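pinging the channel bc i need a second pair of eyes. not urgent but kinda urgent?? the chain im working w is below, pasted from the shared doc
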Amino acid sequence: MAGWQIYDYVDGEGTNQFETWSNGLERKYRAMLNRKLKALEDETEHGLIPGLVVGPIRGYPHIYKLQIGGKVKLRPLLCKGPIDPNNELTLLIGATERDWKFDPKNAPETAEKRRQEIIRDSRRRCNHVKVL
């Protein structure tokens, strides 16, 4: 059985927003992100690896966060599906966290809005683009 299929959110202009965010990360953080996403792709039980994927976030029943440590706490927000929640994960927005607060502050709201956009139009996502 294959692991999770991972997708990235694409905005109305066709820009892969998660790829753009990933390109702005330092190389070591991109490597950490890629390792964690690879672990999810390889997860044959389709579980959300404890300690790596946390959620749902309070107030957002469909939004989860990846926990990637380091000096900067990467907290990309994602959802199961939303087209096939048993087999897919969609990266909705890149974010960081400091003192239990997201940067950008509205990351959970933006993630939920983007999830709804994908439900209305599945072309608002693409296969995950790994940034080296």
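so The chain is about 30% helix and 25% strand. and The longest strand covers residues 88-93. — does that match what u expected or am i reading it wrong
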